[in-house]
Each structure stands twice: as C-alpha cells, then as structure tokens.
Amino acid sequence: MTPPRLLIAVIEDEEHLAQGLLFNLEAEGYRAHHEADGEAALRWLLDAARGAPEHRPAAILLDVMLPGRDGFSIVRALRDSGCYTPVLMLTARGRSEDIVAGFAAGADDYLPKPFDLGVLLARLAALLRRMQWQQSNTLPAHTLPATNRFTLADHIIDLDALEIRRHHPQDPEPSTIHLTVMEAELLRYLLEHPGKIISRSELLENVWHVREDTDTRAIDNFIVRLRRYLEPDPAKPIHLLTIRAVGYRFLPEPETAH
Ligand code: CA
Question: What is the pLDDT of residues 187-197, one digit of tens each?
Fold first, then answer.
C-alpha cells in the first residue's frame, strides 16, 4: 500500500500566488489545502490538529499579512495550543523584523517574497525531512543520528520526541517543554559542539542553511528561548553563554567560578 501523500496547508490571501503554490505542490506529489483568511485558517488548523492523522498537515506555508489574523498570531496560537507542525513563513521582502518576529512566534523557517518556487519546494522538503528524522523510530539505526537523547543538569532533552523534560527536586511532577523543529535543530548543533565558540553565521549556515546576510537577531531570539527552557536562571546563563562580538558557547558542565 502506498503511504498517503503528505498534506501541506497553504495560508495565503493572494489568490494568484496561492493557486500557483497549490498547483506546484500537487505536481510534486503533495496534497494541499488552502485558506485565505487568517481567522478561518487558524480554526481549520486547530481542527485538523485534533483530527485524524491523515487530515493533519505535515507542514504549513504561512503568509504574514492576512485578512482576519496575521501569520505571527496564527503561529503563536498554534504553539500555545500544543500544535508543533513545522511552519515555513512567507515574509515581505527585506523586512528583517518580520523574520525575527516570525521566529519569536515559533516559526521554523522563513522565505522572503517574492521567492523562487524551486527554493520554496527545497526548503519545504528540508523541513519535512528534519521532522521525519526526529519523529521516526522505524528507520534503521545507522540512518539515525548517534544519539537523540541528552541529559543536562535536571533536564532530559529528547530530540526524537521534540521535548525537554525537567524534574526539579522541589517539583512533585516533571514538566515537559515542547520544542519546534528549529529549536531542536539548534539545540542538537549546540549539544554536538560542546565548549566550542560558535559564531552566529556558523549557526545560520549549519542550522538554518541560510546565508550570512540574514538578520542575526533571529538567532538571538532562539537562544533566549533555549535559555528559558534550560537555564536555572535565564538572566545569568551558565550553559549557553554569549561570547561578546562573536556568538555563543555551550557548556554542558558549567565552569566553576575562579
Ligand atoms: Ca498577504
């Protein structure tokens, strides 16, 4: 039996662009669902997330400027309601603040408009591949990264499940933090390079696969979020250090003061 084709949600109010996307997604072998209004789109996405697996989108292409409700508020509402479907945001050209706001709201990737269709399909495929790597437990062991589970102080980081479980001694129950695909990818890169000073452009290139001219505040936003998840005091990080004018350094075992 052939597996059902992946469903991609296209949230875009420019009719011409939306029709082009639907046509090309279907030509690539995806199923596509289109919504043009922000409010209606959020309702559909939340219903789909609660529905049968074959009706859940594998990824969302999300425009920023929409009637009813903008793309940032849609992605934030999805994340707040526990829906972690990968989101590729379609931002206005040259609006670096859109990119930063999109990542801050919980988007996984972005593409400035107007975009090249081939680039969009490649970015979408990359996002789906990362999601599948992270969710698949059925792949042969050699195709999986060596380890997907890490311990950091009182946190268990499970990159397969896209979550961090935290058990503070004073808490009766462990708490679970859900990660977006890109948060997990960034965390994986840091975990795989302990102690190394890592520049923002290295992160953009190796985690986001985008070039250096991108606004690096997008990265800082992700770091702030990871600190909130992992640091005992996010204002005084001991694991995820800022190296001034360079980038970051990840220390699984904090250095003792000297
Ligand atoms: Ca629009």
Answer: 999 999 999 99
Domain covering 141-250: architecture: Orthogonal Bundle (1.10)
Q: Are 202 and 162 in contact (CB under 8 A)?
A: no
Distance (Å) from CA 18 to ligand 1 centroid: 10
Measured in angstroms, how far is the CA atom of residue 178 from the centroid of ligand 1? 29
The domain 7-136: what is its CATH number?
3.40.50.2300
CA of 225 to the centre of ligand 1 (A): 28
Q: 242 — phi, psi (to 5°)?
A: -85, 130
pLDDT tens, position by position, 147-196 = 688 888 889 898 877 889 987 777 777 788 888 888 888 999 999 999 99
Whole-prediction pTM: 0.69
d(C-alpha 132, C-alpha 125), whole Å = 10
